[in-house]
Design goal:
By secondary structure, this protein is α/β, with parallel strands linked by helices. Helices cover 33% and strands 23% of the residues. It has a seven-stranded mixed sheet, sandwiched between helices. The radius of gyration is 15 Å and the shape is globular.
Length: 212
């Protein structure tokens, strides 16, 4: 993968600005507020079926909770990229030592700084409800995925509880993007085929394959 250590988004959109506004003041100590999520993040990464030497992307990586299990999955010879639009979240990732195991880039998931067809696995944790144009982002992910590459749309919280959290915090989220009736067609429009939908009370995972 070709990605710099820092990339500044050009022409920051209103949606990205709102995302930064929401997450920036919450970045410090983010993982302390959700201390039980590590097990579910490791499990979600396992579902991508990565192998040693693969390239993996954490799209909307936040504080980088998935970066360590992604690195463990692809080994020292693999490549791991975490990309997020909120600098404060990447500062938190750096504080937690995630830059030593991955490339962490400031950027826009609508324009991934990665060449075509290189990624074996992409994790999108907590991302789709913050996207007004989810299909466009899914197409961009399909661009950088290799044929048969997998995408995990993941939340370490149940879908209904997530929607309630967004309402309580005034996040202005697009929670219908992960509705069970919508996620399959949404993925298909973005170039992905839904393989597994695990819509549980305490987590959510839609696992898809590129093309198919």
């Amino acid at each position: 993968m070709d990605a710099g250590r820092t990339r500044n988004p050009v022409n920051l959109s209103r949606d990205l600005a709102q995302t930064r506004e929401f997450f920036s003041p919450r970045a410090a100590g983010w993982e302390d507020r959700h201390p039980d999520d590590d097990v579910l993040f490791r499990w979600a990464v396992e579902q991508l079926g990565l192998s040693a030497g693969d390239a993996a992307i954490d799209a909307g990586c936040g504080s980088g909770r998935a970066l360590a299990p992604l690195r463990a999955a692809v080994g020292p010879e693999g490549a791991v990229l975490g990309i997020d639009a909120t600098p404060a979240m990447l500062h938190e990732a750096a504080r937690l030592g995630r830059r030593s195991i991955s490339v962490c880039a400031i950027g826009d998931v609508r324009r991934l700084p990665v060449r075509d067809g290189c990624a074996a696995g992409i994790l999108a944790a907590g991302l789709l409800p913050h996207l007004p144009d989810a299909v466009g982002v899914l197409r961009e992910m399909a661009r950088v995925a290799r044929p048969g590459g997998r995408l995990g749309v993941f939340h370490p919280i149940g879908r209904l509880a997530l929607a309630a959290r967004h309402r309580d915090r005034g996040a202005g989220a697009h929670d219908m993007n992960i509705d069970p009736r919508r996620i399959g067609p949404l993925l298909a429009a973005g170039g992905w085929t839904l393989e597994v939908l695990d819509d549980a009370d305490d987590h959510y995972l839609a696992l898809a394959v590129c093309g198919g």
